[in-house]
Specification:
- The protein is about 40% helix and about 20% strand.
- The protein is α/β, with parallel strands linked by helices and about 250 residues long.
- The protein has two domains: about 170 residues, Spore Coat Polysaccharide Biosynthesis Protein SpsA, Chain A, CATH 3.90.550.10; about 80 residues, no CATH class.
- The strands form three sheets. Strands 3-2-1-4-9-6-12 form a seven-stranded mixed β-sheet, with helices on both faces. A four-stranded mixed β-sheet has the order 5-13-7-8.
- The radius of gyration is 19 Å and the shape is globular.
């Protein structure tokens, strides 16, 4: 079966100052029939790197949140199948084969795949980070992202198949980067929870943080990842506490 017989696939991404892993990301999806990038005003080399790969590059005038922004990007795609990925993710050759086979079969409206994520240079095998199935390949018009500002999910109209080959995810390269991202995500998460009518307190923030540590390190076997597993559990506790404290502050004001 030739490539001509394969349904066309659009790789779709959103970006903001994403130069760190962008070149490797785009190289891994150069086989797609088009690459669509919706940017949020990058000031680094993001635009230039996208130009290297002939990506259709657009800039959004505002930031509505991750879910709405990804839906905007989907609307720019032209082909039958959508492969949505982040700028810090890489599609290995084995996954390309699985994606093309899935698109050819067309037996499901969407397909999920495991994601192998690194934390400060270590690929995690436990703590809830593996296999971490994510829905990333779907037929145009049969799926969309939720309108969540953060932690968006794919809503599918139809059956979801499962692929076995993992997507590679370079989550955080350094702890400084992780902590900076935790601040931004905690703010977005608190705003989203506040708008949904939720409230918090310092006690609830402490209890939630403790539970996040136990869930990551003990229940989800993070301790089996050694030192990196302990660091990840502490990080999850920190981000959880930060989010609930920000939610408490919003409730006060």
């Amino acid at each position: 079966m030739t490539d001509v017989e394969r349904p066309r696939i659009s790789a779709v991404l959103i970006s903001l100052n994403a130069q760190a892993h962008l070149r490797e990301c785009l190289q891994s999806v150069a086989w797609c029939d088009e690459i669509v990038v919706l940017d949020s005003g990058s000031t680094d080399a993001t635009r230039a790197i996208c130009a290297e790969f002939g990506a259709r590059f657009s800039v959004s005038p505002d930031w509505p949140g991750f879910g709405p922004q990804k839906n905007r990007a989907l609307a720019l795609a032209a082909h039958e199948w959508i492969f949505s990925l982040d700028t810090d993710e890489v599609c290995p050759p084995e996954l390309r084969v699985a994606l093309e086979a899935a698109a050819r079969s067309g037996t499901c409206a969407a397909y999920e795949m495991p994601r192998r994520s690194s934390f400060c240079g270590h690929f995690m095998r436990h703590g809830g980070w593996w296999p971490d199935y994510v829905t990333r390949l779907f037929r145009r018009g049969r799926a969309r992202f939720s309108d969540s500002r953060v932690h968006e999910r794919v809503i599918v109209d139809g059956a979801v198949g499962r692929l076995r080959v993992p997507l590679i995810h370079y989550t955080y390269d350094t702890m400084a980067q992780a902590l900076e991202k935790a601040e931004r995500y905690a703010t977005l998460g608190a705003q989203q929870a506040f708008e949904a009518g939720k409230r918090s307190s310092p006690l609830q923030a402490a209890l939630r943080a403790g539970w996040a540590f136990v869930r990551t390190y003990v229940i989800r076997l993070g301790f089996l990842d050694g030192g990196p597993g302990l660091a990840l559990a502490k990080y999850n506790a920190h981000t959880t506490r930060l989010r609930y404290l920000k939610l408490w502050q919003l409730g006060k004001t």
